[in-house]
Design goal:
This protein has about 400 residues and is α/β, with parallel strands linked by helices. It contains 19 helices and 8 strands. The strands form 2 sheets. It has a 6-stranded mixed sheet with strand order 4-1-2-6-3-5, sandwiched between helices. A two-stranded parallel sheet has the order 7-8. Helix 4 crosses helix 5 and helix 13 runs parallel beside helix 16. The radius of gyration is 27 Å and the shape is elongated.
Length: about 400
């Protein structure tokens, strides 16, 4: 990709180039897998971005796109022209890049393969071709607009060659710094899911946890929303975001809410520097945590048990209680998990999950925060169990959750 260097700044060990290039240069040099960068949440619906064609056709400004490239910046002076290969990733601007590529591919198809039937109205022709267009991953809506322009004699490809776009290209950013910048760049975007943000903070531990959990599997928020997962959890399946909440609760020894405030505090603590990990995780504790998850999954294979473990509040309550016991009694959290593991079958027997659902359905949603009440109930019940205070079926109605009630008025 041919670029003109407009400006450059340094930030610690990292360097950012502000560059200018044509839209054609940009889309032609996008890597084939540019949509698969793990930091990104995937392509989302956005009707404003779906109208990007109008911005291009009127030669209006497209906001800058942020890329990350290699560890070392090339030695070029401001104002010079240089080439950047396709070895880069889209840090911010995936949605724009996706739609630009979609438009470009449509224009290429019309110019190189499509044979127009001028006597057929564009709208009717588009409806006829819609199934074929979708088969080759082209949007019928974009095809219709591009063909209308083509019939009016507008050289649509020239819109890409004549339009410019600014690119910020970062060199030398660590993985943790890339995540931090992505979170800042997307801070004002309503569509950025907080679960996805939390997963990124924990990302450097994903492979370790996945290996320790095997043969159980993890799903990510970008692949399956946590709400969808909870309703249809399968045996041996866990949601990555839920496990983060549970693990943090274990380490803190309390029920933790992994919300936007948590994300910000962990991402920008001020002490991370350029470390590759945003969270300082003990791999031994992570391994012990995974073992307990596997044992819980094996002990709770009834329909109600499978569904119960699919709730984030349940895992937070269980591991928060184990962490609290380890914090308040001699021994480490790993030892606390080991002691709990030895009694997991008994724990599964006393859970009384039918009673849990009956109690849960009696809660007045206008007077309680249902999530907080649920995880506090599981926390209290699990705490009583590990302390040896429960030997029979749990009476969920008598679990003390008064501290979670609030006046809805």
């Amino acid at each position: 990709m041919e670029l003109q260097l407009l400006d450059r700044i340094s930030e610690g060990e990292a360097v950012c180039f502000l560059c200018k290039t044509s839209l054609a240069q940009y889309v032609e040099n996008l890597p084939a897998n540019f949509r698969e960068f793990y930091i990104q949440r995937g392509i989302v619906t956005n009707r404003f971005l779906d109208n990007l064609w109008d911005t291009i056709s009127k030669k209006r400004h497209i906001p800058p796109i942020v890329l990350v490239a290699g560890p070392n910046p090339p030695a070029h002076d401001v104002g010079s022209i240089f080439n950047l290969g396709s070895d880069f990733k889209v840090l911010d601007g995936l949605q724009r890049s996706h739609r630009l590529k979609e438009i470009w591919d449509t224009l290429t198809y019309i110019n190189d393969e499509f044979v127009d039937q001028a006597e057929v109205p564009v709208a009717r022709l588009t409806r006829q071709l819609a199934p074929k267009l979708r088969e080759i991953d082209l949007s019928p809506q974009i095809f219709q607009k591009a063909l209308e322009a083509n019939r009016k004699g507008i050289e649509a490809v020239e819109l890409f060659e004549g339009n410019t776009i600014w690119l910020e290209i970062w060199f030398g950013l660590s993985e943790a710094e890339q995540i931090q910048k992505m979170l800042v760049l997307n801070a004002g975007h309503k569509s950025v899911n907080i679960k996805h943000q939390i997963e990124l903070i924990f990302w450097s531990n994903f492979e370790v946890l996945a290996k320790e959990l095997a043969p159980s599997t993890m799903v990510r928020e970008k692949d399956k929303a946590s709400t969808t997962y909870s309703k249809g959890r399968k045996p041996g399946e866990f949601h990555f975001a839920h496990l983060i909440s549970a693990f943090v609760s274990l380490t803190e020894g309390e029920t933790v809410t992994t919300n936007a405030e948590f994300s910000a505090s962990q991402s920008f603590s001020g002490d991370n520097g350029s470390d590759e990990s945003l969270l300082d995780i003990d791999d031994r504790l992570l391994s012990a945590f995974a073992k307990t998850l596997r044992l819980l999954d094996g002990a709770l294979r009834s329909e109600s048990g499978i569904r119960w473990l699919g709730r984030e509040v349940v895992l937070v309550g269980i591991f928060g209680a184990i962490g609290a016991m380890a914090k308040n009694h001699p021994g480490t959290k790993i030892e606390g998990l080991s002691k709990f593991n030895a009694r997991i079958e008994q724990y599964a027997e006393v859970l009384n999950l039918e009673g849990f659902e009956e109690w849960r359905n009696t809660l007045d949603l206008s007077k309680v925060n249902i999530g907080n009440v649920n995880k506090r109930a599981v926390f209290n019940a699990t705490s009583a169990f590990v302390e040896g205070k429960i030997s029979g079926p749990i009476n969920w109605r008598n679990v003390n959750v008064k501290d979670e009630l609030h006046d809805a008025s």
